[in-house]
Amino acid sequence: MEYITLNNGVKMPQEGYGVFQIPSEECEKCVSDALSVGYRLFDTASAYGNEEGVGATIKKSGIPREKLFITTKLWVQDASYEGAKKAAVDSMKRLGLDYLDLYLIHQPFGDYYGAWRAMEEMYREGSIRAIGVCNFDEARLVDLCANHEIQPAVNQVEIHPFYQQASAIQTMKRYRVQPEAWGPLSEGQRNIFRHRLLSKIAARYQKSTAQIILRWNIQRGVVVIPKTARKERMEENLNIWDFALDRKDMDAIATLDIGHSEIINHYSSSTARALNAMKIHA
Question: In the CATH scheme, what is the homologous superfamily, with its name and number, of domain 3-277?
Answer without folding.
Answer: NADP-dependent oxidoreductase domain (3.20.20.100)
